[in-house]
Amino acid sequence: MNRHVKTDAARTLAQSHFRTPPGCGWRNIELLVPQRMRRAVAGPAVPILLQAQRVDARLEGVPSRLSPTRFRLCSQERHLPWLLDSAIGYEVSVEEETETVAGLALQGPTSFAILRDAGFSGVEQLKVFDLAEFAHDGATVTISRTGFTGDLGYELFVPAGKALSLWDRLMAAGELRGIRAIGYTALNRARLEAGLIVANADFTTAEHAIRADRLRMPDEIGLGFMIDLDKGHFNGRRAILEARTKKKLRHVLVGLEIEGNIPAEHAIVYYKKSQEVGLVSAAMWSPMAERNIALASLQRPYGDTIVDELWVEIYAMRELQYQKLMKKAKVVQRPFIKLDRRTANPPADF
Length: 350
Prior knowledge:
By secondary structure, the chain is α+β, with helices and mostly antiparallel strands. The chain is built from six helices and 17 strands. The strands form three sheets. A six-stranded mixed sheet has the order 8-9-10-7-1-11, covered by helices on one side. A six-stranded antiparallel β-barrel has the order 12-15-14-13-16-17. The protein has a five-stranded antiparallel sheet with strand order 3-4-5-2-6, covered by helices on one side.
């Protein structure tokens, strides 16, 4: 995967289109998110964390500024009813465009070279999270330097009627560079190596959780860095501040390195082999990192102030019988691999 380039359907993203009066766009979005969006004017596409009214994380998404009055929000799931409710009383219109705009992710070391060879002149000027519009088949394609793989990559958005011609254009340009279409399994491996989390896999979003104790706050899923408590009001600000000051945070999401080469997916995490303290949500043997890696949600203080004597319980199939293995685990920093080419400017020509 990391030697050539791969395409996928932009993670089957849901897309919403915003129209606002000049100068009001980021200000309206700021009410829904915990970070200061006006600082992101120079980088039109930036990751955000959508907040439920109380506190718990809804979903991570990426808003893009298409013009001074037009914005696009890409997220894993549809949020149109919630967005429409949130827009009441503000000068903003929200439209669903998931079915009318096609998204395609082009990821990997040769992604820039393929776009250049396909005739998208000027794409080399895009820095991470930048976007620009290019001509394609009598229409316009929006290309952003974003992705979900931790590698050099781009995401392309085009009117649905032009999707097939865009696909053919990229496939023809990338034939000699080994372009391949990939599915979710391959994408999931790449995002795990990059230490990226998936909603309703590594944490349960506010609208999907049935039991209140299954919800997670941003600080409990490694997204505390996205919170700016100095920006003024936003959904969940009071509860986040209270949890931090009164030390009410109950969980922590960590990266683990596990001994051996058997993936520990959905394994239980123990302290001193006896006390259950968490669960692995994603795991794999990483050929790039050459390590057995995993993401796990642990009950504090484990994974926070207590990081030693952690073990995972793996059930491995051996000759048609499951064998229980207790393997040592240690907390490690994410991402598990960090590729310089992801942020290189200008992008390298592989």
